[in-house]
Specification:
With 166 residues, this protein is an alpha/beta fold. It has helices at residues 4-10, 44-59, 74-84, 94-100, 107-121; strands at 14-18, 64-70, 89-91, 130-135, 152-157, 164-165. It has a 6-stranded mixed beta sheet, with helices on both faces.
């Protein structure tokens, strides 16, 4: 039986990671994606976490499919840039919707966001590689659940319309 490490070294997984540690507080009520001053940003510890994350994946010879996907928030983009380099990051606005799940949306809105997320998480990456997504934690009991800073959920996509396994 192959080990967990061997499985991700062979590729075919999605590594969904929460951004590095952010500054204390909350995003401003009228935060703007394009204005980092309205958002919580990476702390010094968060920057170190992001650099270490990329180093660990490289040292373990985990093959990554580029570009890495990041939520449009400054803290997620910076995490991805520090871990993987500026030429290797693509911003995807879908992952902002995961962040907005913490705003107590209706059950219909939650279901709509989770359906979009599922479409992304059931899609297999290029053969022999793993897709990395740097985004946000989910609310307790929804989607991938609570994820600590730089925590990573390993997803085995089963293909379009077939879901995924954790």
């Amino acid at each position: 039986m192959r080990s967990f490490l061997e499985m991700i070294q062979e590729g075919g997984c999605i590594l969904y990671a929460r951004h590095g540690e952010a500054t204390i507080g909350v995003d401003q009520p009228n935060w703007l994606v394009e204005a980092c001053s309205t958002q919580r940003n990476l702390s010094t510890t968060g920057r170190r976490q992001a650099v270490a994350y990329g180093e660990v994946l490289r040292n373990l010879q985990i093959p990554i499919s580029f570009p890495v996907i990041a939520s449009p928030f400054c803290r997620t983009i910076e995490t991805a840039l520090l871990a993987f380099g500026s030429a290797n990051v693509e911003v995807d606005p879908l992952w902002t919707e995961v962040y907005q799940l913490s705003d107590s949306p209706s059950s219909g809105e939650i279901e709509q966001v989770l359906n979009k997320v599922t479409l992304n998480l059931e899609s297999k990456p290029a053969a022999g590689t793993n897709q990395v997504i740097i985004a946000h934690s989910f609310p307790e009991g929804a989607g991938l659940g609570r994820i600590p800073n730089m925590g990573t959920v390993i997803i085995n996509p089963l293909g379009r319309g077939k879901g995924y396994e954790l």
